[in-house]
Amino acid sequence: xxxxxxxxxxxxxxxxxxxxxxxxxxxxxxxxxxxxxxxxxxxxxxxxxxxxxxxxxxxxxxxxxxxxxxxxxxxxxxxxxxxxxxxxxxxxxxxxxxxxxxxxxxxxxxxxxxxxxxxxxxxxxxxxxxxxxxxxxxxxxxxxxxxxxxxxxxxxxxxxxxxxxxxxxxxxxxxxxxxxxxxxxxxxxxxxxxxxxxxxxxxxxxxxxxxxxxxxxxxxxxxxxxxxxxxxxxxxxxxxxxxxxxxxxxxxxxxxxxxxxxxxxxxxxxxxxxxxxxxxxxxxxxxxxxxxxxxxxxxxxxxxxxxxxxxxxxxxxxxxxxxxxxxxxxxxxxxxxxxxxxxxxxxxxxxxxxxxxxxxxxxxxxxxxxxxxxxxxxxxxxxxxxxxxxxxxxxxxxxxxxxxxxxxxxxxxxxxxxxxxxxxxxxx
Length: 428
Hints:
This protein is of the alpha/beta class and 428 residues long. The chain folds into 2 domains: 63 residues; 318 residues, Rossmann fold (3-Layer(aba) Sandwich). The protein contains 9 helices and 16 strands. It has an 8-stranded mixed sheet, with helices on both faces. The longest helix is centred in the C-terminal third of the chain and has 18 residues. The two termini are 38 Å apart.
């Protein structure tokens, strides 16, 4: 495993950090070293010639770099504004498999409508497992960059990723990756006295735990539900605040951490209409795709908008290593809230009233492209577990080439169809 490079050029004191230094992103021309400037309290190297700078005078430091000929870009850290994340729906979720024999013994799995074999609007989960059409040969690590994950949940505790190089609770960075006690992931929203992300990524909302259950809740344990992927480990990364106001710097650090620690797919069930200057997250997606073979799968957003015309982020970034997902309902059409775009949105997946895990060993339904995204991620993880040699670009293409075609999606989605596990695995 490559060493995580998060080196401070100048360590700041506890007193300095207490004054909440501002952060800037700077990208220098290739091969150029970061200049030693007195206004830089600390520098965090992300990749290539890209750094995050901590300073008490962001405007002055920004001007200094703008005046330098070796600066490619310098960006502020900007909060886009609070927004409401999907929440558990109050209505009781009905059973959908009435009289059908399920391949799973999980008692609540019948509440997941997208699994139902009799539905023409699902994604062939029951059929795939009933026909033994999947034979994973490799375990896939999926990073859920979200509000955190309830890693003690009865249906998730056995599928949580565990850092093999870290000894839990000893207060030491055992694997020297820049993070202390990162047993199941990291929390970029809570930082230590040196400004480093901490390790407790427990979900204090419900969004990230719900997403995680859809992807990989333990199958056939006689408890709760079943996730889509059978041989997956969930890496939890808390980067999205409960009010939804994540920053590009935290997102980029999360993506880098996930890639360096072995994740091959990143679930990105968040987004915003304001881009913070624009370059860091896209550059990070390109970097981890090329250097670590990671596919980022992102929600298209919930504004009923054509994002070819009205962009949203990160969904609107152009990258071969990014896949964007719209939401469908149990009736088969796009969910009324779902964004779309013939160029910007790649594929659709069930996202309306999806039943999954919530914190405290509970379960419930949520709706949003936030739910369609992990549905696609679960399919992607199972396909990759069967075909681990696939590159991110190849995996994305395979999923898009094997959709269930939907005529009314033509001109609204690049693939004009809904993801399907059985078709992706067998071509049928």
